[in-house]
Amino acid sequence: MDFIELVKGMLLSPVETFQKVRKADLGDALKYFMILVVINAVLSVIISLVALSSMWAVYSSIFEGLGIAVPAAAGFGIVVIAILMIFVNLLVLFIAAAWLHLWVYILGGRKGYVETLKAIAYGNTPHLLIGWIPLIGFIGSIWSFVLYILGVRELHEVSTGRAALALILAVVVLLIIIIALAAAFFFALVSSGVMPVNTF
């Protein structure tokens, strides 16, 4: 399947498309994912430039009023951020796939890590295509979450319930870990006296 067919398939008939990509290898999935990431990065940069240009006059007058030269490298900075977005997305793909695969494996998925990575790579289609749009981008994320479930189900050949439970466990346990670490960090700061606590 070519790129456009894959995008259409993931958006309009994801179950059949996931069944077709069972034969795809890691390289195919990464190529597809990277094209989506580049598209997302370019569109995100365009939105950022539009937003920046509308605020540029305000920021310019503030900087000039303070006697500071307007940063000429702002546009360059946005391009650097776009490039970083591409690398970060790729890194997150591998880490997220490993974390999710742990739960998929616990719940009976035995087709391997690559299949979990493919579920996330292909399932990211809506998120990467519309996630950059202000106010409605979250719809792409929700849609992608559903596609992750379908992808795990189809590529690991497990039930929908097991696939959904694997995703839910991956998210919930990660949130619990983050909250626990944040709480431990906060209490460490308070107990060390770095962060004073007001007592009434």
Please provide a brief summary of the model.
The protein has 200 residues and is mostly helical. It has helices at 3-12, 14-20, 26-65, 74-106, 113-123, 125-130, 137-156, 160-192.
What overall form do the CA principal axes indicate? flat
Number of domains: 1
Strands, total number: 0
Radius of gyration: 21 Å
Kindly describe this structure.
The protein has 200 residues and is mostly helical. The protein has one domain. Helix content is 80%, strand content 0%. The chain contains 8 helices and no strands. It has helices spanning 3-12, 14-20, 26-65, 74-106, 113-123, 125-130, 137-156, 160-192. Helix 7 crosses helix 8. The mean pLDDT is 89.
What would the keywords be for this entry?
single chain, 200 residues, mainly alpha, 8 helices, flat
Task: Write the SSE topology.
Layout: H1 3-12, H2 14-20, H3 26-65, H4 74-106, H5 113-123, H6 125-130, H7 137-156, H8 160-192
